[in-house]
């Protein structure tokens, strides 16, 4: 039996979504581009999902482009916006705490001849809007700032930054992969031009994502082929994945507010228990507005990697840092950017809660963490025994 | 292998190779609770200029991790990659470089065993609740009731014996270490691997020093300096004969090791060998093969593995490099308990500073030290 506390990595399928996927697999096997009725059934499923995802964002259905996931959405937004009409001489602004899907796309733009400014964040993980304002140049064409951070849950001042972007006449992309379904994601209120989503963070399957593209915003496509998604993303649609994403979006519209309150209660229970019972624990991104489900804690004198393994062997899934290509853990670039030392970053663990978690699970997790930390500290050459 | 409680929890060090994969499979067959772990020791993306064409067969390559993960998945063993890159760099790579620059010929595998595999890895294993670690080394560990000590013995397969690299182990490390292949011969291991369905059964053993992919140590050292943003000031010196006559110029003693014959930088009428290197003067002394013979050595930073430190001189067989048939010698204690003088019955060829002298009594590893 595993208790799963890693919902910022991915989430299990919810029952209604599973039912939706299996119905789409059985009944919507047609190609949505076909003329016949099998194709039409698949097309209907895709367009229903488009309107459901649009509703979650308060967008128009025509502003939703389905993709293969969060990485493609981020790439399409960042590369597509800057590459349009040529990269040369253009400037983009992002932050040091973005997901690799954005940082990797920015690095590619630099190789292609663009300039990119990487903004620092404060100690609480939040970017200062003034820094954004000062970074804007006449050549700036895009600002990309994530809505909520995957590792700390810190929420960025998206509405303030979008006002800066609008005043400067610069496109604004927000990576909403962690925020969607967890925070209010009304793209009109947020004022974003581009907004990325991933289905598998929302209890739907891997392999589907979406990009909100405000009406009138033009992007250079990443892949070439048929005229799918209004010529913005070639390739036959992943019908069951898209249907599932629509289904989960509809559920979130109804449940999000209540679920956020419930998860915040569980998260606070987890944090207050650990802070009370384990000495030498600190909250990362303390003081920032955080996602209700996310808790990044650092345990003095502990290798987070060892704690993750110990907890897994005890039946609890949590995470630490970012996995490199081999699967080994490297110190998180997010925590380092917040000013943590490499050893503080390595001592950090992320707990991220979701639909399946309840109080009993949280209490069991607390017991396991207390026992594992005590054992690891007994062996640690680093930790000063009080 | 020693008797274990059936509920023992064992962390298996899995490299992706046939030996450690077989260890995991046989312990699983025997019903123990296991966790498989691969140590990430060196980032192979570093020093890309040195990367050979094929990245296989190097430690910590993605292929090795893939193989280890596949084996763990096949046998339903929880599996983790643990990151010891920092410890490896500090306690293996940097001393390796320092030793070469000081004119010695180091053994990184021993440092890795002492400071990473049987230290950091053991600590990690204990931290996650394991009672023992198991590795694919060819060596044997037993408890001697009479002496009250854990004893290290050669692996039963003499051609695969790895005790030359394990003499630095301490009692508390031996107490928690299992070498399940110690009683087996390599062909038997391959056969068992096939029987158990280990998919790497035909893979070749790795040979090179894992973080020097192309085997060129001098080039590695210079590339490492460049990576660290430090200028490598190539030392200059002379290759001289025993009378001190200069025969050639060279670009640093780290290009030479005692006994080396090739790459001396000049043509001689007879075969000449490096007899001695001196980092302080940057002199490399060459001479005829007979001059490589030495009758004794001093071993420093001695560790006694299977016996208490000696108070009186005693006979032993001593290995001065991995591929060396242990030679009869007398171990003589000195005034300093960390230093032992080794006097051989017959002179030995190319006793090399930086290598280890490992002391045996038959199969038993008495201890060892670093050749000065």
What is the helical fraction of chain B, as a range of percent? 10-25%
Assembly type of the chains comes to heterodimer
Radius of gyration of chain B: 22 Å
Enumerate the spans of chain B where pLDDT stays under 50 for 5 or more consecutive residues: none
Q: Tell me what portion of residues of chain A adopts beta-strand conformation.
A: 5-15%
How does this model look, in words?
The complex is a heterodimer of chains A (386) and B (372). With 386 residues, chain A is an alpha/beta fold. Chain A has 2 domains: 3-9 and 256-379, Aspartate Aminotransferase, domain 1; 15-252, Type I PLP-dependent aspartate aminotransferase-like (Major domain) (Aspartate Aminotransferase, domain 2). Chain A is built from 12 helices and 14 strands. In chain A, the strands form 4 sheets. Chain A has a 7-stranded mixed β-sheet, with helices on both faces. A 3-stranded antiparallel β-sheet of chain A has the order 9-10-14. In chain A, strands 1-11 form a two-stranded parallel sheet. In chain A, a hairpin with a 5-residue loop joins strand 12 (322-323) and strand 13. In chain A, helix 1 packs antiparallel against helix 8 and helix 9 (304-313) packs across helix 12 (359-379). Chain A is globular, with a radius of gyration of 21 Å. The longest helix of chain B is centred in the first third of the chain and has 20 residues, at 108-127. In chain B, helix 1 packs across helix 6 and helix 3 (85-101) runs antiparallel to helix 4 (108-127). In chain B, the strands form 4 sheets. In chain B, strands 12-15-14-13-16-17 form a 6-stranded antiparallel beta barrel. In chain B, strands 3-2-1-4-7 form a 5-stranded parallel β-sheet, with helices on both faces. A 4-stranded mixed β-sheet of chain B has the order 9-8-11-10, with no helix packed on it. Helix content of chain B is 24%, strand content 28%. Chain B folds into 3 domains: 9-136 and 180-196, HUPs (Rossmann fold), CATH 3.40.50; 234-287, Adenine nucleotide alpha hydrolases-like domains (SH3 type barrels); 293-371, Beta Barrel (Elongation Factor Tu (Ef-tu), domain 3), CATH 2.40.30.10. Chain B has 372 residues and is of the alpha/beta class. Chain B has helices spanning 18-29, 62-74, 85-101, 108-127, 171-175, 186-196, 217-227, and strands spanning 9-13, 33-40, 79-83, 132-134, 139-144, 149-154, 177-178, 237-240, 246-250, 273-278, 283-287, 293-304, 314-319, 327-333, 340-349, 356-361, 364-371. Chains A and B meet through helix 9, strand 13 and helix 12 of A and strand 2, helix 2, strand 3 and helix 4 of B.
